Amino acid sequence: MTVAPSTSGFSAFALEPFPQLQPGDDLPNVITDVLALTGTTLLDGDVVVVASKAVSFAENRWVDLTSINPSAEALELSARTGKPAEVVQLVLDESVAHFVAGERGPIIAQHRLGHELTSAGVDRDGPDGAWLLPSDPDASAHSLRDAIAKATGATIAVVIADSDGRADRRGATCISIGAAGIAPLRITEHGGKRQEETFTDMIAAAAGIILGQRGRGVPAAVLRGIGYISSEAGVASMLHHAPAQ
Fold first, then answer.
1. CATH architecture, range 11-61+133-238
2. Using an 8 Å Cβ cutoff, are 219 and 50 in contact?
3. Is there a contact between 182 and 159 (Cβ–Cβ < 8 Å)?
4. d(Cα 117, Cα 98) in Å, to the nearest integer?
5. Where are the domains of the chain?
6. pLDDT, tens digit (0-9, with 9 covering 90-100), for 12-52
7. SS3 state of residue 186
8. What is the rounded average pLDDT for all residues in the chain?
9. Fewest Cβ atoms closer than 10 Å to its Cβ: which of 54, 206, 207, 223?
10. CA proximity to 28, closest of 156, 173, 204
11. CA of 7: how far to CAs of 18, 43, 162, 223, 228, in Å?
C-alpha cells in the first residue's frame, strides 16, 4: 500500500444554510444548489462529508414502527435497556450479532453491512418511526461523488459519516460508513515505523465537529487541503466482516 501524502493543515466549513430535507429529495441537486446559493466553489481535492441521515432521507429509509412486531428477544432486550421493543426489533433485523455494553445498554451490534455500531445505526424518529442506514453506503458515496463532480467540474471525494458511540465510554463520535474517491486506509511512516490508519474515520470525525449530532443538524461539510490517495475501494474494503448476503 502506498504511503499517503502528508497533511500539515486543512480547513473545514459547513455547507449552510442547508434546507430541511424531505424523503426522496435529490441530494446531489440539493448540495449543488447550496453551493450556488452561497457562492461556494469546490476545488480539486476537496472532501465533501455528508451525514448518513441525509442519505437515508434521500433513499427513503424510513420505517413505520407500528408495522413492527417485536419478538420475544426484542421484548427482553427492551425491558433490559429501556428502548422501545419495536426499535430493538429493527436493531435485531439489521444486525447479525449484538451485545449489551452495560447493565442497561447501549446495544452494540454488528450490522449486516459489516460495521459494528450502536443500535445497528437505527435512529428513532419520534414515537412512530425510525431511520435505517443507507442500504449500500459506498454505492451512495459513489453516486454522490459522480453527480457533484459532474455538476461542479471539480475532482472531489465523498465520505458518508455516521454518529456512533463506543462500548467503553459515554457520548458519540463520527465514523465513516461509505466513501468514494479516497482510500479509506492511510499508511504513515516515521522513524522506520509504518502505521495503518482508518483515514476516512479521521475525516468523518473532523467533519463531525461541524456537523454536530442532534442539536446543530448541518448535514454536509467540506474539508480542504487534506492529502490523500484517490481510490474507489470504499469503506467496506477495510472491514473485518464482509457484508452479509
1. 2-Layer Sandwich (3.30)
2. yes
3. yes
4. 9
5. 11-61+133-238, 63-131
6. 999 999 999 999 999 999 999 999 999 999 999 999 999 99
7. strand
8. 93
9. 206
10. 156
11. 29, 17, 24, 12, 8
**Relative orientation angle of helices 72-81 and 85-94, to the nearest 10 degrees:** 120
Listed in sequence order, the residues at least 6 apart from 130 whose beta carbon sits closer than 8 Å to its beta carbon are 62, 63, 65, 86, 87, 90, 122, 123, 124
Rounded Cα gap, residues 33 and 22, in angstroms: 15
pLDDT value at position 116? 93
Least confident among 65-74, 114-123, 135-144, 187-196: 187-196
* CA gap 232, 177 in Å, rounded: 14
11-61+133-238 against 63-131: fold identical:
no
Q: Which residue has the cell 475501494?
A: 233
pLDDT of residue 188: 86
**Fold of the domain built from segment(s) 63-131:** CofE-like fold (3.90.1660)
Longest alpha-carbon distance in the chain: 58
Q: What cell numbers appear for 236 in the block? A: 467496506
5: cell is 501524502
Question: What is the distance between the alpha carbons of residues 170 and 51, in angstroms, rounded to a whole number?
Answer: 21
Strands (E) in 3-46, as ranges, are 11-14
Look up cell 408495522; give the residue.
Answer: 67
Check whether 216 has a pLDDT greater than 90: no
Give residue for cell 448541518: 218
Cα–Cα dist 131/57, whole Å: 8
Is residue 203 within 8 Å of residue 159, measured between CB atoms? yes
Alpha helix ranges (H) inside the chain: 27-38, 52-58, 72-81, 85-94, 137-152, 199-211
Backbone angles phi, psi at 18, to 5 degrees: -115, 130
Among residues 178, 185, 187, 191, the alpha carbon closest in space to that of 234 is found at: 178
